């Protein structure tokens, strides 16, 4: 009887994860995270790849973090190689939350420069969490190739990722401020400003950097 009831609850939860109503999917994901069961891991990862609701995706990620890394990481590494952008993005996001550095080799240059902004942003966040000690400067050099990319949110994500690496990024930032592309120069300047003054605000730092670039200075002359 107990086994039958357990199987019935499992089936109900699986059906809940696929329900047309986001509120039902949210409750089902919460239930899985509250009572972790390895049998749900594959389904959680599959749902992450197609779930349209942001809040449900976050709950799916939370549910995955409630399971052991040995159970979740292999499936997430497979999802990182998916052709579906959302699958890659959400798997990377979840790996950054789990924080298991065995996943580091999966953070490839291809992912860090993925054509999809959401995938790239997730890869940047995962990279700074998973990067092995001593490899921060090399990672910063790879990330710096993305300066000037995208709109405000994408640029802010890159700046935050770089800043999380600490002072090792300074030589790379200074090299980027001499780039021929004005978007690259402005983005690098704004990142350096935020590194030294976290309270400045990215919007303010970026607009100030654009003004400095337009005037044809590096910005350091003005601060002297």
Q: Report the major sheet.
A: none
Structural class by sheet pairing and helices: mainly alpha
Amount of beta strand: under 5%
Order of helices and strands: HHHHHHHHHHHHHH
Oligomeric form: single chain
Number of strands: 0
- SS element count, helices: 14
Global mean pLDDT: 90
The general outline is elongated
Q: Output the radius of gyration.
A: 21 Å
Overview of the structural elements:
This protein is mostly helical and 224 residues long. It is built from 14 helices and no strands. Helix 11 runs antiparallel to helix 12. It is elongated and about 70 Å long. The chain starts with a helix and ends with a helix. The relative contact order is 0.07.
Concise structural overview:
Helix content is 70%, strand content 0%.
Write the layout of secondary structure elements.
Layout: H1 2-17, H2 22-34, H3 41-50, H4 54-65, H5 69-80, H6 85-98, H7 109-112, H8 117-130, H9 136-144, H10 152-164, H11 170-176, H12 182-196, H13 202-215, H14 220-223
Helix pairs in contact: 1-2, 2-4, 3-4, 3-5, 3-6, 4-6, 5-6, 6-8, 8-10, 10-12, 11-12, 12-13
Task: Record keyword descriptors for this entry.
70% helix; 224 residues; mainly alpha; 14 helices; single chain; disordered C terminus; elongated
């Amino acid at each position: 009887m107990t086994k039958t009831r357990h199987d019935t609850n499992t089936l109900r939860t699986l059906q809940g994860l696929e329900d047309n109503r986001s509120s039902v999917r949210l409750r089902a994901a919460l239930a899985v995270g509250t009572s972790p069961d390895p049998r749900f891991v594959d389904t959680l990862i599959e749902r992450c790849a197609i779930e349209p609701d942001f809040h449900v995706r976050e709950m799916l990620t939370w549910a995955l973090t409630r399971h052991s890394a040995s159970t979740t990481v292999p499936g997430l590494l497979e999802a990182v190689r998916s052709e579906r952008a959302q699958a890659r993005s959400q798997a990377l996001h979840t790996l950054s939350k789990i924080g298991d550095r065995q996943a580091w080799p999966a953070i490839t240059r291809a992912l860090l420069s993925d054509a999809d902004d959401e995938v790239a942003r997730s890869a940047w966040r995962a990279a700074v969490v998973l990067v092995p000690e001593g490899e921060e400067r090399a990672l910063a050099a790879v990330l710096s190739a993305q300066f000037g990319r995208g709109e405000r949110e994408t640029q802010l994500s890159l700046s935050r990722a770089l800043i999380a690496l600490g002072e090792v990024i300074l030589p790379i930032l200074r090299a980027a401020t001499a780039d021929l592309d004005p978007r690259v120069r402005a983005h690098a300047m704004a990142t350096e400003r935020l590194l030294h003054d976290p309270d400045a605000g990215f919007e303010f730092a970026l607009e100030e950097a654009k003004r400095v670039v337009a005037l044809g200075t590096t910005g350091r002359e003005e601060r002297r």
